[in-house]
Amino acid sequence: MSQLTTPTTQFTDRLVREAERAKITAVSRTSAWALEKKGLFPKRRKLHADSDRVCWLLSELLDFVKSREVINMERTQ
Fold first, then answer.
1. What are the CA-CA distances from residue 77 to residues 26, 70, 71, 73 (Å)?
2. For residue 69, what pLDDT is reported?
3. 1: pLDDT strictly greater than 60
4. pLDDT tens per residue, range 21-64
5. H/E/C letters for each residue in the chain?
6. Domain extents for the chain?
7. What InterPro entries does the annotation carry (predicted)?
């Protein structure tokens, strides 16, 4: 009798809306938009094709925050 295997990969990524994005990144909506246009901030994603609602991937926001921490630490040294 064969055993069924279960996937061991856990999905930890999720979608983040504007209010939570602002708390995570500490970047205003206007600044986030300007940085996104320059390719320096994670790109927003539409929640639905017929909607103006947008979101971001949590993993991309956390990567952005980590990259900013490195920049800030280099400035203080």
1. 22, 11, 10, 7
2. 73
3. no
4. 999 999 999 999 999 999 999 999 999 999 899 999 999 999 99
5. CCCCCCCCCCCCCCEECHHHHHHHHCCCHHHHHHHHHCCCCCCCEECCCCCCCEEEEHHHHHHHHHHHHHHHHHHHC
6. 15-76
7. AlpA (IPR010260)
Distances (CA, A) of 61 to 6, 8, 48: 29, 25, 20
Q: How far apart are CA 31 and CA 76, in angstroms?
A: 23
Q: Which residue has the tokens 């539409």?
A: 46
CB-based contact 29:70 (threshold 8 Å): no
Q: How far is CA 63 from CA 12, 13, 47, in A?
A: 14, 12, 21
User: Burial, 64: exposed, middle or buried (Cβ in 10 Å; 0-12, 13-18, 19+)?
Assistant: buried
- What is the distance between the alpha carbons of residues 42 and 59, in angstroms, rounded to a whole number? 10
